[in-house]
Amino acid sequence: MASDGGDTDPLPHAKYPELAKNFDTHNNYVSLPRREAFRIEYWALEEAKLRRMPPEAEFSRRIILVVGGGSGIGRSTALKLAAGGAHLMIADLNAESAAETAKLCAKYDKEAVASCALDLRDRASMAAALKATVTQFGGIDGVINTAAVFIPPDANGELTDQNWRLTLDINVTGNYYLAKEAQAIFQKQGLTGSIVLTSSANAVVPKRGSESYDVSKAAVNHLIGELAVGMAPLVRVNGIAPATVVAGSTMFPRDRVISSLKKYNLAANDDESTETLRDRLAQFYASRTLLREPILPDHCADAIVFLASDRSARTTGNVIPVDAGLADAFLR
Ligand SMILES: NC(=O)c1ccc[n+]([C@@H]2O[C@H](COP(=O)([O-])OP(=O)(O)OC[C@H]3O[C@@H](n4cnc5c(N)ncnc54)[C@H](O)[C@@H]3O)[C@@H](O)[C@H]2O)c1
Predict the structure, then answer these.
(1) Prediction pTM value
(2) Ligand 1 centre distance from Cα of residue 251 (Å)
């Protein structure tokens, strides 16, 4: 506004009577210029609304597919991401457990979570889950896979041919196809993204009786590097390598817990509850670590969430151990 009251502002605030000529008049009624009305009615309210919005959370407007989300580390990861404001598609071979995780995540925002079935042996089902994620939420920013299998040796202590094939098929080829299907979407979007896969301490520590699993996880370590090279610069690819996580894992049914306890000459009585036996085994594994503490799904999920987030924006092609300190698994 000019100091002489001249009209330099096309939207007068009617501060000076002489500016009234900018207002429409109808008999005694004087209406505001339309732009002035818009400014008062719309922007003031809009700004008030924006000020009232809660601040964005770390994963607000991020869309992430969590494969293996029906149990253990995957479920814990999904819950942390949901708490962080992510939009989530929870996928698992066990569609019911995926739906159960989605239900748990819905307490943060029921509109921001869905679930579906996915089989890491079936590339078409991975493509379908990715498509369902895009259709549901409008795109994809991250893919996490915690699903894998550990198939114990048969009654004679032998690894069957089927054990070997199935383990490599699910744990290695499944991760590769999942990443390739996701890559096609990331490329189409032209946006940055993050993939997080799950390896194991066994990838670098050879053991008797788990050759197929150990080799599959060694391959996952290398696959992470290969994918990071192939998908740069748009997509970061990293992984975590947990050591034994007994709590919350379907990988430790009662019979496996008992046979592991017996292998280490620890008590395992038939009348003891599965939880008691699992705690004993977890404590035993903890005693072999530098930190002497059991590893929980939440510890692994924290590392996955970090790798899925912008906090690790300059990290790709790496594997973070979550093993409470295993000197045998230190990378050389
Ligand atoms: N629990 C441990 O001691 C441990 C140790 C080191 C590494 N890991 C790795 O951590 C990851 C998660 O372990 P967890 O303890 O949460 O296991 P979990 O068994 O509790 O969860 C694995 C999930 O994968 C799903 N799954 C199995 N086969 C599948 C398939 N073909 N397609 C899709 N989903 C399938 C299962 O239904 C299950 O919900 C795995 O990659 C595992 O190898 C686990």
Answers:
(1) 0.88
(2) 7
